[in-house]
Design brief:
heterodimer, A: alpha+beta, Alpha-Beta Plaits, 3-stranded antiparallel beta sheet, B: 68% helix, globular
Chain lengths: 176, 330
Amino acid sequence: MSVYALAKAMGITLKHLFSKPVTIPYPSAPVPIKPRFHGRHVLTRHPDGLEKCIGCSLCAAACPAYAIYVEPAENDPQSPVSAGERYAKVYEINMLRCIFCGLCEEACPTGAIVLGNEFELADYVYADLVYGKEDLLVDTVGSKAQRREAEKSGKPLKLGFEVPYVRPELEGVKYE
Amino acid sequence: MSYLLAAIKGLVLILMLLFTFAYLTWAMRRGLARFQIRQGPNRVGPLGLFQPLADAVKAIFKEDISVAKADKFVYWLAPLISFTFALAAFAVIPLGPKGSLFGLDPWVAGLNVSILYIFAVAELATYGIFLSGWASGSKYSLMGGMRSAAGLIGYELALGVALLGPVLLVGSLDLRDIVDWQVKHGWLALWQLPVFIVYLIAALAEMGRTPFDFAEAEQELVGGFSTEYNSMKFVAFYMAELLHWITASALIPTLFMGGWHAPFGLPEVPILWLFIKWLVFIFVVMWIWASWFRTRYDVMIRFAWGKLFPVALAWFLLTAYWVASKGGAV
């Protein structure tokens, strides 16, 4: 038995005693995540405010979990919703089915649907986990459950993560 | 009157020990977590300080399951034996000089053979472990109990013989005399360095702590002797284990590092200095726990018989020769 080895072991543990814990007390402290983390989707807009989504349903076709439902409609030329001929009248993603693989993002010809970083999606009712356009468009921050809780308690919505930067595909998204 | 006083002091000591136990569980979990770069329990109250309360409530209200194959009487008796004797050992440790606690003596029992008493009581607590292993009707428990008993035979001899040196040198079996001697002549840890080291190692074995925690080795024996115990019966074992730790951490400074006496000529404050030395040993044991592996119990027994015992015996003979040549205790 080497006394040196034992002393070395004690040295290592002592060094660890004075270092910061690597675990994160999650609900009270934010989780650091990578910018390319696959979280809740975002429907992005062009800088002029028009939606990028043209209602082509390619995301729904690419989706391996059949989680996406798109119902397109013709744009009114006077006040268009999207930059194309058509736009998505209904755009729903079932978060219970979604496997966050990102194939919808790859399939999208206009870069409209992008996987964001939000992951706190837990909710009580199945129906509440089907996210519509109003839940996915860029200006919406937080999951349905988070927004409901924030409204009920009157406290500002708090996201449980931090990213070093938001990747450029998530145009207009700010996590703070 | 003196009996009443002893009873009151005993009660206060028990309450203090149980409180210390409760917060030692907290300190241990937080401390070990930090050694392993984790957070540790921090949910209940500030810094998780109410965690012991939550644990106590949980343990008390947990369903008390008895094992069908167990020997019911011994199965119940074993945790009681462990707990009671672990609690009793602290009674003779002097926390300060005579009459320093508001005119009272800061110890519960003023025995003149307190070393023998501590040895007897601490070893009786091992009976609890051994009996629980035997009575549980489970092979894991039996193996844990057997390991504990076999380990006892290993380290206890070294422990006993090691302490003969200091006892010869001081000429008394009384812990108070040993501390008084150290006040006059300096720490016994310096006078009896090999004994100090042997005693430290053997004390780890007596506590059942890493690296000698083979009696409850989770990875091999599920929980060893306490496999078939839950709720308050398990807590009794847990308490006994931690109380051994508490007692040994107070006993080692008392025997070897001047006890309540302030080191380096610092001002004397009753209890405080022993408390500081106690904290040091609590920390060292935790540190060892976080750092080292568990020995196999046959390795430990070979080590105890082959290394610790000869060293202790040789040093005892040397001390005896020296004391005899001086014509009596120093």
